[in-house]
């Protein structure tokens, strides 16, 4: 699902009309709950960057569906994650979304059960404990945590295999030449989009909409203006196989260097990129279902999705820069941020238009066009996740 990576050495397009997911998959509450159980509660989900929890006792709370998680850095510097639930009677432990704990304890605001930062129950205020009661039997419920290149992921599965790294799309860029761990946040955009989370991913995975929706982006990335993501999306690609002009090969328009309002990059650029990575203009890495990262020559943009309901999704985008870029008094990031914001706002608006039409009673299912091969791959991923999940969890 990379915009510039060639999927194969032949035509990428679908050769048969493939059905979309059923329309109810995008608005029915029961289908939404199935998505939560089969996908969001079983995969690695991006929470934040390690820099957001830089000091001991720093914490963040995070909701995935109806599950609340607290992620913290303990007093020894280790990152830990727990369900945000007291073992006494299930009260919420942390009510704030982020901050720094006032003590080396997590104390329930209801009845003051207290836990150390490794999750062990250490104090119960009751004057008398029941016979046989052992505090070691009541630790916080742990949540699996994994870090990747300075990003923090959690997984709600009881015993998830591996780490966040293998869950990245193998057809994505690896971004090994970008110093992700050292980058600093320059801007954050948070927006609630009135659409199902899958609608946003579908929009991400095709560029048929680009000529009509993204005027400025299509001018910056000429192949997008043709409705294609890569050279081999064109059924007549062989006619232009030796033509390296960007409208056929991909990459930015001639003279442009990065995604910005004028196509110009900041003077502080990533020194370790290959010529191919610089020429591509945009290099995508994706980790379904919650995030993708785009590497440019001078900054990195991350986008995180969180489902808020059957027809609501929260989108959080961050623009990450080299520290010296943000400390440079002459650096202007508005040229970059305004362009990316425009693209995301355009995507959000058209996703909401898509969502509004899905409830038509006779519309049971859509159909994919040849250029939407990555949508088909995404749909197969969703279908496979539901098959592997089996019957919904009860409780």
From TrEMBL:
The keyword Metal-binding applies. The keyword Protease does not apply. InterPro entries: Rieske_2Fe-2S, Rieske_2Fe-2S_sf, Ring_hydroxy_dOase_asu_C_dom, Rng_hydr_dOase-A. CDD domains: Rieske_RO_Alpha_N. Residues 45-154 form the Rieske domain. GO terms for molecular function: 2 iron, 2 sulfur cluster binding; dioxygenase activity; iron ion binding. Pfam families: Rieske, Ring_hydroxyl_A. Keywords: 2Fe-2S, Dioxygenase, Iron, Iron-sulfur, Metal-binding, Oxidoreductase. Its cofactor is Fe cation. This is Aromatic ring-hydroxylating dioxygenase subunit alpha. It comes from Pseudaminobacter soli. The lineage of its organism: Bacteria, Pseudomonadati, Pseudomonadota, Alphaproteobacteria, Hyphomicrobiales.
